[in-house]
Design a protein that fits this description.
The complex is a heterodimer of chains A (374) and B (407). By secondary structure, chain A is of the alpha+beta class. Helices cover 23% and strands 28% of the residues of chain A. In chain A, the strands form three sheets. In chain A, strands 5, 6, 12, 13, 14, 15, 16, 17, 18 and 19 form a ten-stranded antiparallel beta sheet that branches. In chain A, helix 1 packs across helix 6. The longest helix of chain A has 20 residues. By secondary structure, chain B is of the alpha/beta class. Chain B folds into two domains: 143 residues, Aspartate Aminotransferase, domain 1; 250 residues, Aspartate Aminotransferase, domain 2 (3-Layer(aba) Sandwich). Chain B is built from twelve helices and 14 strands. In chain B, helix 2 runs parallel beside helix 8 and helix 9 crosses helix 12. Chain B is globular and about 65 Å long. The chains are: A alpha+beta (374), B alpha/beta (407). Chains A and B meet through strand 2, helix 2, strand 3, helix 3 and helix 4 of A and helix 9, strand 13 and helix 12 of B. Chain A: Belongs to the MnmA/TRMU family. Chain A: Catalyzes the 2-thiolation of uridine at the wobble position (U34) of tRNA, leading to the formation of s(2)U34. Chain A: Keywords: ATP-binding, Cytoplasm, Disulfide bond, Nucleotide-binding, RNA-binding, Transferase, tRNA processing, tRNA-binding.
Amino acid sequence: MKVLAAMSGGVDSAVAAARAVDAGHDVVGVHLALSRMPGTLRTGSRGCCTIEDSMDAQRAANLIGIPYYVWDFSERFKLDVVDDFVAEYSAGRTPNPCMRCNEKIKFAALLEKAVDLGFDAVATGHYARLDRSSSGSIELHRASDEAKDQSYVLGVLTREQLEHSMFPLGETPSKAVVRAEAAARGLSVASKPDSHDICFIPDGDTRGWLAERVGAETGSILDREGRVVGDHDGAHAFTVGQRRGLRLGVPADDGKPRFVLEVRPKTNEVVVGPKEALAIAEIAGHRFTWAGDPADETGEPFRCDVQIRAHADPVPAEARVVQGSGGVEFVVVPDVPLDGVAPGQTAVVYLGTRVLGQFTIDRTVSAVPVAAVG
Amino acid sequence: MAVYLDHSATTPLRPEAAASWIETASSIGNSSSIHSHGQAARRTLEEAREDIAATLGVDGIEALFVSGGTEAINLAVKGLYWSRNDDADRPVVVVARGEHHATIDAIDWLVAHEGAEAAWVDLLDDGSIDTVHLERVLRENADRTALVTAIIANNEVGTVNPVDRIARLAVDARVPLHLDAVAAYGHVPLDLRALREASGASGAIGPVAFSVSAHKIGGPQGIGVLALHRTATVEPLQHGGGQQRRLRSGTQDVASAAAFATAARLAASEMDPEQERLKRLRDRLVAGVLAQVPDVVLNGPPLAGDRRLASNAHFAFSGCQGDSILFLLDMAGISVSTGSACQAGVPEPSHVLLAMGRSEDAARSALRVTLGRTTTETDVDAFLAAIPGVIVSARRAGLSERDVGAR
């Protein structure tokens, strides 16, 4: 196959590209330029986007012996990922920009361009496995190394996208094996640090970065009854489930710590309450996709696991896809209430190790309803 | 077989130049040393300097060896700016919008750090400097202008500027003129002496400097010359041993100078028949593209006449991204260029095309094909065989990118 290896300059994508070559594919390395004004050198735990990272990718491609190109997706990236991230936060939601990048850039803009230019597949360094069902349908599964598993951030991929995807690291028992393999292959990125932070936020200071773009205005912190219990410097800086950094002048009636329950960007209000009030008994969303064969859309409930963050544990749940007044809705009722659910987050639904699909959470039902709010 | 059609980026080292380099590099001696080893090196160096100077219409003493075109341009632009501001306040640098980044970025630096003012001159739609506008800009900045700098032949679209006219305007405005001759060298005759005579230049006014680079004419990479008229002076960029009129300190690279001189002699002696040969090949290439590919525009001046480098073809393939075309051609074993500067390997939309009034989309769809000494009919055939299919694929990819935006 003609394979495009997306190379960030990190160790995972370099080893993935090398394995694609070993598997006999005709491989071309492509680095995605995502920033119009890239920094020169890598700093901290950002894993991409500097000129040094693109040089690392090029050196890896040289060593593997494949051609290397840089493709410019900076305009798309700004529109679909960066601006979207700001807009979602402004609307009080908590987006995952890496998922957005996978959905809109790596497995959309890049993949489509690759296919148009004659490639059969895009290979990345994600830890996830592809498999086929007995009927031959493509399936996305968790990686063999559950600690490194990245199937969650790939949950947005559709059947068509998965058919053109390749994850050569999916069967690897651990990241240490990948690093050792990189060293054995002589790849200089073997010991390059892992990336954690959002790549387009220079120093990892997400709040400061957002404050510059969203604008910060002093607003009120309310309790569930609507009483003003404190103030803040901008609602966007808060996420549901957060406890630290709350300026509360009025103590809680029961003296217990309070957590952010809700962010209301329109009124610049933050609602706090006891930990129990964070518990969410039901999540639902209208924007959903299937990663391969879809589930029953007739409203029949089925058993699954649901995961609401990249590093959260999956929770057993009952799901159904129902036709409601607002359109078709994916509804999930976890067996135990979920904590720290914020609108905008992605819920990925699993059947065992298989990713069934995902939806963006736009509605939640609290496990502890409040009788009187506001 | 690999087809190389990016001779404006660099053209293959001439075997004779390589032989000169090897012969010279293996002999001992610093050209600044007093002993006989040093004298031998010095002799080789000065002979090389004189030969190169002869191809530029200057004396040997006027040819300063530098590391390449970028350094030559920086030394000329910054050096003239500083020296011209020694005795009077002359903050203005007059420059056209289609110059090479070495010029533009050097001037941007002067603006940011030295209080300079850039006075920008427009391009006409064929990529040439608008001399009517240039005249007006010079008049508006009379007595405040440090220098004018102009490219002789545009490195992207191959436009040969009306240098005689520009030189006369500089003389009339009483300002020194630096000419970026990097892309023109080896393709059009360069003669500073004749140009000064024709334009009525005297002293450090009018045309005073040419910048050239060896590797554009089959010399080695890493060496160039700033030909600086004896009446002009520049403030040096680097200080040290005081070599080369104290304007460019540092031990001189004798081997590269010798190789450069060999390439310069050959390029000068072959120029006329070689330009004729390249023009025929280039015209056939352009005709073949226009005949086979729909919706393609030839950027820059017409092929006929002497307003365009014989080696240059520059296209806009509507609906394509230049980097897609470049990629597909490379996969087919054909090396070309989008022509514009890269940041981390990403082609920017060309500032030259934007200055010529093209849209950003058109600027991104550009492809530069440049021929040179090693180009054969077979190379042109290979390009013409590949390009129709490549453009079909690149257009499909170009369109799919727009679909993504529409979703």
